[in-house]
Amino acid sequence: MTTRAILLLAAVLAFALSPLVFQPFMGWDPAQFPVQIERHPVQPAGYAFSLWGLIYAALVVHGAFGLWKRAHDPAWDAPRIPLAIAAAIGTVWMPIAHASPLWGTLTIWPMAAAALAAFALADPVRDRWLLAAPIALLAGWLSAASAVATGVFLGGSGVLAPVPAALAMLLLVLLIAIPMQRLRRGMPVYGLAVIWALAGIVVANLADTPMVAIAAALGIIAMAVALLMPRRG
Fold first, then answer.
1. How far apart are CA 53 and CA 157, in angstroms?
2. Is 130 exposed, middle or buried (0-12, 13-18, 19+ CB in 10 A)?
3. d(C-alpha 111, C-alpha 89), whole Å
4. CB atoms < 10 A from the CB of 134, how many?
5. pLDDT digits (tens, 9 = 90+) for 171-191
6. Could you give the CA distance from residue 141 to residue 91 in angstroms, rounded to a whole number?
7. Contact yes or no for 167/102 (Cβ under 8 A)
């Protein structure tokens, strides 16, 4: 268990430091796509990406405390491998995304899947906020970010027009996020991270794409219901 705890701390430290090593990813250049779209409606407003600072800090605290105080705790050990995989992919994701929208889109999904697997395995008896909340934050944001990346790719590649791509991806976010929140009813941070991303989409589209803003707002309501309703069984 200690080895896995060390591996996880190394992975989350590398992940947190990656923006200092690689050029930060601020979105794809429209010139990288066959169809050049200046602003994709599926993208949240820029302020929403500030959540990454909290995600990095929370993961480092999680990894450090887990090694220091919970290296041999089975509940802490359960999510370590998938979380380390998510962090490892995240460490190299920025240069991959800069190089290719296709590969950036393809690689964000395994990162999201690994984060979701870690969240599903994070079922603490104690240390609820130190153990599960940082993982929930990452998994919630990536649930939205993976769909956003896919929507941008679909629109820029001409597979779907920008608004249908945004609407399809908003639906996909909810299909992923609502069951996951219901599974982990006791950890609202996951749903709140998804809501944060959806709110960014509302803000980005209020002025010129109200249909997408309304759809994102309805998504926020759906996530709020998933957060508030008691789980059956």
1. 31
2. middle
3. 6
4. 28
5. 999 999 999 999 988 899 999
6. 16
7. no
How many degrees, rounded to 5, is the angle at CA 10 between CA 96 and CA 189?
Answer: 80
Provide the phi-psi class of 132: left if phi over 0, else alpha when psi is between -120 and 50, else beta: alpha
CB atoms within 10 A of CB 53: 11
Phi, psi at residue 37, to the nearest 5°?
-115, 120
- Unique residue bearing structure tokens 């909290």: 54
**Cα separations in angstroms, 7 against 1, 51, 71, 82, 130:** 10, 24, 11, 11, 18
Confirm if 61 and 133 have CB atoms less than 8 A apart. no
Task: Record the pTM.
Answer: 0.95
Q: Positive or negative, the Cα torsion across 185, 190, 196, 198?
A: negative
Is there a contact between 200 and 144 (Cβ–Cβ < 8 Å)? no
Q: What is the 3-state secondary structure (H, E, C) of the chain?
A: CHHHHHHHHHHHHHHHHHHHHCCCCCCCCHHHCCCCCCCCCCCCCHHHHHHHHHHHHHHHHHHHHHHHHCCCCHHHHCCHHHHHHHHHHHHHHHHHHHHCHHHHHHHHHHHHHHHHHHHHHCCCCCCHHHHHHHHHHHHHHHHHHHHHHHHHHHHHCCCCCHHHHHHHHHHHHHHHHHHHHHHCCCCCHHHHHHHHHHHHHHHHHCCCCHHHHHHHHHHHHHHHHHHHCCCCC
Residue at token pair 């105080």: 69
Rounded CA separation 80/100 (Å): 29
Q: Tens digits of per-residue pLDDT, 56-94?
A: 999 999 999 999 999 999 999 999 999 999 999 999 999
